[in-house]
# Entry
Amino acid sequence: MTRGRGEVVVTGVGLAVPGVATPEALLRRTACPVTGPAAEPFDTAARIGRRGHRYKDRATRLALCAALEALRNADLIPSDGEEVTVPGDTVGVVASSNLGNLDTACLTAAAIAERSAVDLSPMSLPNASSNVIASWVAIRHGLRGPNLMLCNGATSGLDAVHWGATLVAAGRVRRAVVIGVETHNAVVEDLLGRSASELLDGAAAVVVEGARWAEARGARAVAALGPYERRAGLGGCVEALLPDGAAPGVWFTPECYAEGPAGAVPVPGAVPRYDVTGAVGRASGALGVFQCAAAVGWLARAGAGAGTGAGTGPEAGAGSVFEAAGPGAAPDPVPASRQALITSGDDTADAVAGLLLRPAPDRCPPHPARAPLISMECSR
# Structure
């Protein structure tokens, strides 16, 4: 799906991961500092308090922490509250986690098999539901828009960002909080055959919002979403996003990506690479959301977050990607060298997802007159 430049933007980022306080910190190459002890597990109680812990599993608590920070970062929740300052039905939730509540589901099944369902706690049983993470985020903050939970393998996190943006672009909501979360425990370690030190115990969240709605409430966009692609292979995915061999400014590679010979790699060798799993651990279904958060950090560090820089200079020639701002608008180039390429999944996976993240537009592009509201569209 291709959206007009600036139509859907990122207005907030939230993290709940040990030792990482800002998106820029995700750009480091290793999880642990060169000296000193490893970071302690993220303290969810310090952010969401005791009420946020009652009868909730760790993945849900981590997701609540990241979502709260992202919503506050987007100025949708005041620093001293939890309720959104916009109508709740204008905000949706999309969460991604492949393994988040696996321990609850497995332990529940084992308890039933060994004893009976009578031994199960009615307060903990809802945690076995596959959509518990997305649901609790919505309940906690009064978000009454569409509520989705994705468990889609290697591409799940980027797919979640795409579907959050699709809800916005389709007019179902004006904004959506997208969360990626995974945690490690004995069940996950046994399934993956990896130690806890290799696995993520944390969450990331981004708020995606219609640019005109963000501008109307005075919110600052930190990035703009470019096109999204889903293909069978990595090379085809990158070529669809960046035709004619255009080189992006940075490449956020698939998880633990091992590059082959130079000719087999779809991105030029001079392009900087980041694998966020080096900073946070193997992220599974949370990877794509963490990559988007890291890309926001890269855009900020590169000084590209202030605007697109227009398209009249020499950079607007070869190696640029063009998208129309709206019906009848002239193409407005964003040089590929100023964009972050994000890919999840490689040629060993069932599919590869890719997304371009761009500098935030200076302002919302002109928008055509709206058609009459339909029953499925938010009306506030």
Remarks:
- Residues 124 and 378 are 34 Å apart (CA to CA).
